[in-house]
User: Fold PiggyBac transposable element-derived protein domain-containing protein from Loxostege sticticalis.
Amino acid sequence: MSDTEDENDENWKKVFYPHTPPIESFDDRPLRPSQVYPIRSSPLAYFSSFFSQEVINHILEQTNLYASQNRQKDWEDVTIAEMKAFLGMLVLMGVHPLPNVDLYWSSDPLFRLYKIRPMISLMNTAFKNSANNTASQSIDECMIKFKGRSTLKQYMPKKPVKRGFKVWARCDSQTGYLFEFEIYTGKKENESETGLGAAVVKNLCKELIDENLENVHVAFDNFFASTELLQDLYQQKKTFNKKG
Assistant:
């Protein structure tokens, strides 16, 4: 500290101790497994060392108890075999991730976007990494002009671009910067317009919800809005505005 400082200020100084405090010796043992497995042990054996039968039984009991307490209609208690099968499916779903849980049960022999899905994911990641989420965003549909042949091509007579690929987009409200997009692949069987709009909003806002980004206003028109959607979003303590 300088000499011009107040004399009442504290000053730092070095203090030299005449000896070094003794340090107790310890056995520096490397990390080793407490249980030795045969060299040809299956992956299930290693998994079971962490996810024991006791853990599975606990999950099973709590699952059935929850259903019983909530009086689930037509509920049948889950068995140990079913719980193990469910856990196995979760592991496989982690090994082979898909953009939507419904796709794991889809009977469609050909996922329409399977060839460009990796490209879509890479582009969405680049969009989100290149700019911070703004406070005012909007979700809407847009058209990519295309006159060729494709089962994905849509016809929208009221749009400036009447034929092409329909895209759902989440953008910055002021600049139009694109944060995330999804290509519309067609209406699913027995799917209502209300269900479609809600699914679009939830999918495109998943990042905002997962990262607890509060004070982000996302506007969308009456095509996407529904009482169920707004109640669901309100429960997640997010700020969503309905426009129009």
